[in-house]
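Field reference: sequence -> structure
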Amino acid sequence: MSQVSPQLKQRIRQDVQSMHAYAIQESAGMVKLDAMENPHRLSADLQKALGERLGALALNRYPDGRVNDLRAALAQYAGMPEGFDIMLGNGSDELISLLAMACDVPGASILAPLPGFVMYAMSAQLQGLAFHGVPLTADFELDEAAMLAAIAEHRPSIVYLAYPNNPTGNLWNDTVIEHIIEAQGAQGGLVVMDEAYQPFASRSYIDRIARHAHVLLMRTLSKFGLAGVRLGYMVGPQALVAEIDKVRPPYNISVLNYECALFALEHAEVFAAQAKDLREQRTQLQHELAALPGVTPFPSEANMILARVPDAAKTFDGLKARGVLVKNVSKMHPLLSNCLRLTVGTATENDQLLAALKASL
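Structure field:
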């Protein structure tokens, strides 16, 4: 592999040079249960209809007002309150980056519970903001006292609360969340409720968001069933969304992305049935995991289950050798010691996971 010359290296930020790129595991020929994807594909007739629709698009033109049809459809789908607006991103990742960019004022910082989604900290680092991580309790609940103390000390521009959380899969206590939202509002900061796993959760914050002028709610169509389309959306008070929208690149949503998303929303009942199946599979998988000696699955409201095993590295390697790919999160945070994150798959995939797990323990 060629080397970057010392002269060119001087032009690249030192902290970027010391970073590691986001690693995507090689998955060819594997049962892929490492990335919280919806395992269900569209039926042949829906694939054909979508293909015809995408084939008719004018790819020689920039995206047009049709993107506003998608914004309206998503607002209706999500149940967006009156006086709120919606902003689209190339996945939630882009929205997280744009929030860091928009809030990059002198002394600004971002705060989130840990373990949590890695992009909160990465977006802060790339934008030159401080990041403050507040450990969860041993059973992955919010540490209310520690969160409130950190907000008082650091006065962060943004507090992220993933609801449910990644990689732990749980929904946190609503009373504690309200106390955090009130404390962050009192010192003039934003709260972002990240509902990436909303299709699999028993509760959403959307019905409470209208109470606050400083809370944004973020979702993605990745877990809905369109991980390959890369489309995230964020709702919040109109004036607030208008300010953040100023840093969004023009045409950030391609014509293919928005037409795929519109097509999916027209067939929302298909994706709702898929989510229902995955919730049922999750219940069954949790039951089966709990029966395995030495395995502790944690409660989940997402399409993944965090499970503690006696030896995460050995078990991960054993699963991989048997053709099943999961995520070894045991080194992400001390609280995740010997934990694997298992995506909920189809009934067949989950059976393959369980058989490989039994043989690998």
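Note: The chain has a mean pLDDT of 95.
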